[in-house]
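Task card 7
Instruction: Convert sequence to structure tokens.
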Amino acid sequence: MSKKQIIMEKALELFAKQGFESTSIQQITDYCGISKGAFYLSFKSKDQLIIALIDHFMEEFISDIDHLVKTSNDDALLYTFYHTILQSFRKHSDFGKLLIKEQTHTLNDELLEKLHYYNNEMDKIILYLIERQYGEEIKHTKYDLMYCIKSFTGMYSELFLFNSVPLDLDLNLLSQSLVEKTSILATHTTITFISEEIVQLSKLQTKKEIKKEEIIHLLEQKIEDIKDAITKESLILLKQHILERNLSPAIVTGLIKNLQNHPDCKWISYLLRGACHLS
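Output:
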């Protein structure tokens, strides 16, 4: 584990106990057993540390959902989507509660931009799921259905964020229930409100798409940081492919799968799936 990861892990423990505002950089460095200089080598400020924690959670969450949606069997697609999201909300409920409690401190322009970006990425995943699950049958209502699915996941996540539900809550039953509700809406909705134009208009202020140069930069960082030989070699080959397009789709898919299985490479694997146009 890198020093940056240790700081994030330890800081999260303090934030959970004391809140963002009440936790100082000095307390974080004391808790980590490092100097302030070592902290500032990793983070310019406490706000940057908080943003990094949010990035870490959202990047892992989105990359996991994207991977499962694109690799699950058709029959289990909707169920897998809902079950994975609900499981993640339950697993990270303490972090979610912390963000909601401290939102007045964290709600700055940088965070808003990031949240818009991650929301945009989730929209892409859900639209892919809808198109794969229902095809042309719901071409005119798919954007309405996308918002319904987002609403379901948001509403039912409240079970873990605001209510003292038992930890052994039957996620299988809840996921099956949401699949049934979604299928009813997909089959019977005839009046549509959300159009592609409305969706595109709502995204005008979102973060721009990540450019090839940014992906190359992230790959170079990972190549330097990762010690595992197979993962490092996969990163090197994929960087070369981004530059030269010299590998077959099957080889690229295998290399990206190597990254998906590494806990520190899930986000770069997600970005590469998009950059290499892989489903």
